[in-house]
Every structure is written in structure tokens, then in C-alpha cells.
Amino acid sequence: MKFSSRWMQGAALTLLLLILSQSNIFAQGKEPVSFTFDTEHIDDSTVYLNIRAKIAPGIKLFAMKNSEDDLVYSTLQFVDGVKDKIKGNPVFTGNIQKETDPDLESTVEYFTDSVTWHQPIKAARADSFLVVGSLSYMYKEGDDFPSKEEKFEEFVLPATHKDETALNPTDEVTTTVGNVSRLSTFKIFLLGFLGGLIALITPCVYSMIPITVSFFTKSSANQKQGIKNAVSYALSIIFIFTLLGFLITVIFGPDALNVLSTNWIANLIFFAIFLIFGISFLGAFEITLPSSIANKADSKSGTSSYMGIFFMALTLVVVSFSCTGPIIGNLLVLAARGSYFGPLMGMFGFSLALGLPFALFAFFPSKLNMLGKSGGWLNAVKVTLGFLELALALKFLSNADLAMGWRILDREVFIVLWVVIFILLGFYLLGKLKFHHDDELPKNDFGLPYISITRLFLSIISFAFALYMIPGLWGAPLKKISAFVPPMGTQDFNMAVASAASHGNTVSLSGEDALPAPKKYADRMKMYEPAVVVKHHMTTYFDYKEALEVARKLHKPLMIDFTGINCVNCRDMEGKVWIDDEVMKRLKNDFVIASLYVDVHSVYIPKEEQYYSEALKKTVKTLGEMNADLQISTFNANVQPYYFFLDGNEQRLIPEGYGHDTSVEKFIKLLDEAKKNYEASRS
């Protein structure tokens, strides 16, 4: 197809007119002066409130007022409570100009491109408060001198060390958390040590202890040399497993592991891992490394001196993988919920427990007969672990189910499956079930099979646990395991709620009736409400702004509860602290509560409210992302549970947040202090 030159000229002219008209429209709608605000720590006692102005071409923004003779100027005003923190006049960064204005017949100072005003404010490095005020400014546009006002509310947050990197959504330790990292790492170490003790009584490892220790003590020139070799052997085991944890930390990083621990896809993978290992422990198959790896390690064990001892330890690690592999895999999954050194400390604890007997029995070889003979009881240990693996697998499947809102494992379905698993475990311990590798029960003096007292007590515990969970099918809170079962909101039938409704009874405290029902996200988020909230008919909000508006209207302090649907410590606080009568009375009467879930990925915020987060380094689309961004960027924290208390102006009533601490007395004192500070701020 051919086009005439006249047609092309006309098209080009039309396009040019469209571009000019669009640029004109854009220019007409552009603000003459636009502002951004932020705060910055300067030294140990000063913070700058930075006011950055972007000035459109042809506009003159007048400088701050210097004297009473100034006719046109800009000025800052602050609310009471902030005024006494102001340290002198603001300074500026920018190219200031001075001239005699012909219209005013007076000398004026102004900026034509951009300027940043720095207002000094008194603040220690640990202080946190809200700076509220307004900027009144004048500018010249043509022959006109318009004046406008720009209001601002900026938090001053505790200062971080200069060498710290910016927070991101996977950081577990923040400047306001204190010893959370050390506590979680220590727990992971204990968990790893327990895993090592369990691995010791598996068939692959247990039978190796007397054989290996005897080899070192008998093949050495003297007892001292035997002890030295056995200790080197134990230290080699510790080194190999700890190195594994270190490599996992370096390769994947703490951030990746922590993100995986709350990701629904990762939880499905963890579910598959626990399921496969559980079935393996029950005897369906064995998980082993290729024989070539074991053979190569074994061939090097004949090497002299310490290198040979090291490869003997490596041979034990490889050969025993069918028993230790499932425990190690589960340990690393759980360590993913820890801090940066989670995998490292978990594997150190595991290897310490595993290597300790080799060193102890080398020092006291006469005590080897304490171990007793290996037999069918070792396989019973594996099968028992298999049942526990299946129960834990369901927990990871539940995490993914809750995160995505599939409603596959609602509360009663989850409880039924756990009840069945622990009843079957009880029957197995009584010898009523047999698996592939099980031996016959030992026989007594009369030739009859019998079970040991240990197995009897373990079966009693298993049956008792199953019976304890059964009332949960009708809505019992199950406080002891509330952190593991799905939230009460997923329960289809709750006898207590149904009974109260049929009799027209609801548990309500004074002041609760004044709270309007939550609207934003309530239809999706009600299912995640914990048992204590459902039981006491608490009104909680799932959107920060909605809760803040309610708090302002009712003149109540706002309690922000940063929580998670898969947060074990959150359920622990609710089940041990919130449920207390005095705590519940204060929560319902004195506060408006915003329960902000940071791990909800299936609930999307409206498209017009989506935005880019500097803290998360991505566009915020889900409710969980929005709450996580709020906690990190505004409150400088990223652990759950974490509680903050604000007044109607979003000023903190308690300078620091409050984390996982199950002391009822301390929490009551905290609530009373927050209420007292709120009343003082209104007087």
C-alpha cells in the first residue's frame, strides 16, 4: 500500500498537535511546588526533619522568614509537644537568590529549582516520636503571590548503627528486638542436640558406637593413644556436620531460609519431605546415598594418622545417612525459621550429641556394656519417629493451606488426622501393629510375649494425647497445642458459640458494644481469628487505617498486633496471656485492636491502593505484604508477635514495642501504662 506525501504531512501535523496538546495539559496539571519529608539522625542528640522542595520552571519559592521586615516568606509550625524539641531555625541546601522585586519594591530571597530545608530537632539515638506540623509557603507565579500549606506527620525512629544495611522483610533481628536472635539460635541448638540424641538410638548409629570405640582402643599402641584417636574421631564427626550447616548458610543465606519458612510452595515441599521420611521410617523403603560415595569415603579411611580418622568419621556419616538423613533434613527445615546462624548452630548441636558418646566411652571403655544389645527396640524407635514425622508433615500442609486459603485442612479435619495418628501409634507401642522390619515381642518366663514398661508408658502418653484432642472437634480451645492446630475461625462447628447463640447469650464486656464491626478484609480474614478471639467475641480489625479511624472516633488507644497465621509464638501469647481475665477485660474495654497478619498471601488489596515498597523492594499487592511493609518501614521491626500502642495522632504511647513474653503481670502493666499515657496526652 502506498501513501501520498500530502497524507503523511497531514498525519505528522496531527501527531505534533496531539503531542503539544498533551504536554500542555500535563503542564497545566503539574504542581508549582511539590514536597517530600523524611527524618535523619545527625548525631547522638539531633535529628533533621528534611523538607525537600521540587520547584517547577518559572516558579519562585520564597525562603524561610529571617526578620519581621520580610513581606513574602515560608515558615514552619509544629504542634504542642514537638515545639519544645525544636533546636533553632532551619538551615537549607540549595541555590538561594536575592533581588528587589519590582511589584513589592522590597528585597526578597527565593529558590527557582530545588531546595532542602533541614530543621534540627532534639532527639537521642534511642528516641522515637511523631513530628507533626505544617509548612506554610509562598511563591511567585507570573505576577501572582499565592500561599499554600503542606501538612506533615513523620516518625523519628531509633537510630541504627552506621554499618547496618537496610532492613528487608526477611531480617529477623531489628534495632528494637533485643535478644530475639540469641534466643531463637539457642533454641535451634537445643533442637539439634535433641535430634542428635534421637539419631544415637537409631539402628545405623547405635550399633556403631561399641564397634568403633573398641577398634580405636584395641588397635592403638596404648590406651592413651586409643583415647586420643577416639576423641579425634568424635571431633571429626562434629566438624563434618557443622561444616554442612555452614555451607547451607553460605549457599542459601538466612534470608532465603526465612522466606521459605513462610512461603506456601516451600511449606508444600517441607510437607513432602516429612511425608517421605515418615514413610521411610515406617519401613516402606530406605533413603540411602549412592554406594559409590560410601565406597570412596571408606577407601580413604585406611590412610594413616588424622586424615584416616577423618575419613572413618566421614564413612560413618555417609553409611548412617538412611537413619540420620531424615532427622537432619527435618532439622534444617526447622532451622530455616531461625536467624542467620540457625542451620550452623542446629548442625553443631546435632553433631555434638552424636559425637559425644564416642569420646565418653573412649575415656571409660568399661562402661560400654551399659549400652546393651541392639535389637527390635531400635526399629521401634524408627517407627515411632515415622508416626511423628507424619504428624509434622500435616502441620506444614496446614501452613500452605492457611496461606492460600484452600480450606483443605480445616481445624476439625486436622485434629481428626492427628487423633488417628496418635491412636495408631499407641496401638503400635502396645504391639498390636507390625511393620516390615519389626521383630517379635520378647517373651517372659512363661513363654508369652510382653511389652516393656517404657513402651507401656509411651503408649499411655500417645492415647492420652489423642483423647485430649477429641473435644477440639466441637470447639474446645486446646490451649496446649493451639500454636499447632489451625485457627478457630476454620472450625465449621463450635459448640460454645452455637450454644450461646441459641440462648441469646454473648460474652460481652462494657465498652465492647461501641466497637463497629470490621469491614475491610473481614470476610476473608475472619477464618484466621485465634481461639481466644472467637471465644471472647473480641472485635479486631484487619486494616490499620480502619482501626485507627475507629480509635480516633471512640477516643481509645490503638493496639497494633503484628501477627501471622503460621506464627507459633503469636498463638502462645494468645493462649497464655490474652486469655487471662484481667488482660481480656482491658483489651476489650480500653483498646481498639488491629491484628495485622504479615504472612497472608491470598488476600489482595485493591489495585488503586497498591504501591512500591522500598523496604520490601517490590510492589505491595497482598495484605500480608502491606502489613510487613508497615512493620518494617514505620516501626523498624520484623518479628511476630510484636505489639505497639498509638494515640489518635499515631504518636507512640510506649516508646518500644513488646514482643513474645508470656508474663501476664508484665502485659497487664504494659496495658495500664499505655492507657495512662493516652489519657495524659488528651488532658
Q: Can you describe this structure?
A:
Helix 5 crosses helix 8 and helix 19 runs parallel beside helix 21. It is elongated, with a radius of gyration of 33 Å. It has helices spanning 5-29, 180-200, 203-206, 208-219, 223-262, 264-281, 291-300, 305-319, 321-335, 342-363, 376-404, 411-429, 453-469, 495-502, 522-525, 531-535, 544-554, 568-578, 581-590, 623-635, 664-682; strands at residues 33-41, 46-55, 59-62, 75-78, 91-94, 97-101, 106-111, 114-122, 129-141, 147-156, 540-541, 558-563, 592-597, 611-613, 618-620, 642-646. The strands form 4 sheets. Strands 3, 4, 6, 7, 9 and 10 form a 6-stranded antiparallel beta sheet that branches. By secondary structure, the chain is an alpha+beta fold. The chain folds into 4 domains: 29-156, Thiol:disulfide interchange protein DsbD, N-terminal domain (Immunoglobulin-like, Sandwich), CATH 2.60.40.1250; 180-407, no CATH class; 410-506, no CATH class; 509-682, Glutaredoxin. It starts with a helix and ends with a helix. The chain contains 21 helices and 16 strands.
Q: What's the alpha carbon Rg, rounded to whole Å?
A: 33 Å
- Beta-strand percentage range: 5-15%
Q: Name the helicity range.
A: 40-55%
Structure summary, number of beta strands: 16
Structural class: alpha+beta
Our count of helices gives 21
Count of distinct structural domains: 4
The residue-averaged pLDDT reads 77
Distance between the termini: 81 Å
Strand count, sense and barrel status of the largest sheet are: 6 strands, antiparallel
Unreliable spans are 1-29, 161-183, 253-259, 503-513
